[in-house]
Amino acid sequence: MIQYQAFLPEIWLVGAAFLVLIFELFYKSNSDRGLLKAVAVVGVVGALLSLGCELGCVSGGCPVQACCSMGTTVPTAFGGFLKTDALAAFFKLIILLATLLTLLISFRYFKANPTFYVAEFIAIILFSAAGASVLTSAQEIITLYVALETLTISSYLLAAFMKKDKSSNEAGMKYLLLGAFSSALLLFGFSYLYGFTGTTVIADIGKALATQVSSPLLTLAVIMIVAGLAFKISLAPFHMWTPDVYEGSPTPVTAFLSVASKTAGFAAFVRLFWVGLSVPALQPTWIGLFAVLAVLSIILGNLEALPQRNIKRLMAYSSIAQAGYISAGFLAGGQLGLTAVLFYLFVYLFANMSVFLAIAIVNGKTGTDQIEDYAGIWKRSPLIGVVLLVGLLSLAGVPPFAGFSGKWYLFGAAISKGYTWIALVGMIFSVVSLYYYLQVARQALVSEPKDPSPIEMNWVERAVLVISVVFIVTLGFWPTPVMQMAQTAASSLFN
After folding, report:
1. Which of 189, 186, 209, 188 is CA-nearest to residue 197?
2. Please, are residues 349 and 330 in contact by the beta-carbon 8 Å criterion?
3. Which residues contact 217 (CB under 8 A, 6 or more apart)?
4. Of 170, 161, 397, 137, which Cα lies nearest the Cα of 256?
5. d(CA 265, CA 487)
6. How far apart are CA 339 and CA 342, in angstroms?
7. Cα 279 off chain centre by
8. 64, exposed or middle or buried, with CB in 10 Å at 0-12, 13-18, 19+?
9. Among 176, 190, 100, 102, CA closest to 138
10. Is residue 338 within 8 Å of 406, Cβ to Cβ?
11. With contact defined as beta carbons under 8 Å apart, do 328 and 269 qualify?
């Protein structure tokens, strides 16, 4: 019997995507597009509600007993290939919230950049989110790979979605070519793993490798898997696609890639390396690789962000540096390290998505993403000025904002496991990052506006920006509730 609770969020997402495409056949005028947007939002909200039911089922506290037939058993499906434990549920929560905010950003973006293909864009976003969500539950490498490709192929389409925009076409082509190469590396590495172990189930791979000694081919397989997945989360030196794709893609796509895609990538890393490849013969190899990649990402991401004059390129290099910080917690491993990773991803969601919503709103008014054109934004919209300041300072790790708490936990976990040098590099370059983050804040808050006309927002956008600022500030002072959720999620991997 299939336990549908294991993939209820994906059912909501895919169902909403198909409904959007079907309704598009009957509602062609722009005045009817509101229905398509409503269906998409309802689909994501339904997925979030079903995720809450899944968490209740796992803990035995679901108030709607009709939706939960297995008591406190973790929902599984397809012979155990999908399992929505507390860890998967936490990753899904971040991905679904990022998808909801991406839809909101896309509504604003397409208001300023009209297109006839809004329904197709919405559907692809929902399919991409479904792939990312499945990936977090995947318990074997073929399911993981198919889910990852669902996410990335959809992302290629989204990056090149504005067909008459040269930058968007360039972004999609670069992303496709480099992404296909990384996918081939990943699949090649998986094929070697299967050859060595005779199984595709991640837990069984770990059991089979526990009795084997390291070999050159097995080491090569690990290197290819690290390289293939490092591309997906923009770890240096596999970050070469990120600045061009972030700059050329539609702003909603950039926001989605920066949070949802990165979260799914780290979910894959956690499942593969701390379950399947955490054996004595292999652990020194991939830990050494990750240590180098983390430090390279922190250094290169921050240094290359310094001269940027386009805010989307700046956010691209910021994303590379953030991947390095998160990798420090991943390296620490165990419940402490994984808890820090989960908490930071949750914090990163609100800081990054609020900044991208502000970017989309400003772009809709000015038609540009140049930092110099953010001059005087504070006077044109005080709320956007506050959001940019709070969001960017949180990304930099400045107290009392949530990013400081997140980095405190990440670096603390790294130091506790002997990676003091990585933590020191992270702290030093967090200070360096203040320079380019404050360049944006200086333009927004100090410089005189070129155009004094106010920037209008609807009530939904105002509400989202205010809620994001509240979360960023509150989690800086009181991180306990989210930390407890993250600890519960992390413990499910090691129990």
Report:
1. 209
2. no
3. 192, 196
4. 161
5. 20
6. 5
7. 28
8. exposed
9. 190
10. no
11. no
Q: Is the pTM of this model over 0.85?
A: yes
Give the type of residue at 301: G
User: Would you give per-residue pLDDT tens digits along the chain (495 residues)?
Assistant: 567 777 889 999 999 999 999 888 877 655 556 788 889 999 999 999 988 755 554 444 454 444 444 445 777 878 888 888 889 999 999 999 999 999 998 888 888 887 778 889 999 999 999 999 999 999 999 999 999 999 999 999 999 888 888 888 888 888 999 889 999 999 999 999 999 999 999 999 999 998 888 788 899 999 999 999 999 899 988 988 999 999 999 999 999 999 999 999 999 999 999 998 988 888 888 999 999 999 999 999 999 999 999 999 999 999 999 999 999 999 998 899 999 999 999 999 999 999 999 999 998 888 888 999 898 898 889 999 999 999 999 999 999 999 999 999 999 999 999 999 999 999 999 999 999 999 999 998 888 888 888 888 888 889 999 999 999 999 999 999 999 999 999 988 877
Tokens of 226: 């690290």
Domain ranges of the chain: 288-495
Cα–Cα dist 431/213, whole Å: 43
Assigned token pair, 431: 């200070």
**Separation between Cα atoms, residue 12 and residue 385, nearest integer Å:** 36
SS (H, E, C) the chain: CCCHHHHHHHHHHHHHHHHHHHHHHHCCCHHHHHHHHHHHHHHHHHHHHHHHHHHHHHHCCCCCHHHCCCCCCCCEECCCCEECCHHHHHHHHHHHHHHHHHHHHHHHHHHHCCCCCHHHHHHHHHHHHHHHHHHHHECEHHHHHHHHHHHHHHHHHHHCCCCCCHHHHHHHHHHHHHHHHHHHHHHHHHHHHHHHHCCCEHHHHHHHHCCCCCCHHHHHHHHHHHHHHHHHCCCCCCCCCHHHHHHHCCHHHHHHHHHHHHHHHHHHHHHHHHHHCCCCCCHHHHHHHHHHHHHHHHHHHHHHHCCCCEHHHHHHHHHHHHHHHHHHHHHHCHHHHHHHHHHHHHHHHHHHHHHHHHHHHHHHHHCCCEHHHHCCHHHHCHHHHHHHHHHHHHHHCCCCCHHHHHHHHHHHHHHHCCCHHHHHHHHHHHHHHHHHHHHHHHHHHCCCCCCCCCCCCCHHHHHHHHHHHHHHHHHHHCCHHHHHHHHHHHHHHHC
353, 104 Cβ separation under 8 angstroms: no
Going by C-alpha positions, the residue among 272, 266, 425 that lies closest to residue 342 is 266
Contact 94, 267 (CB under 8 A): no
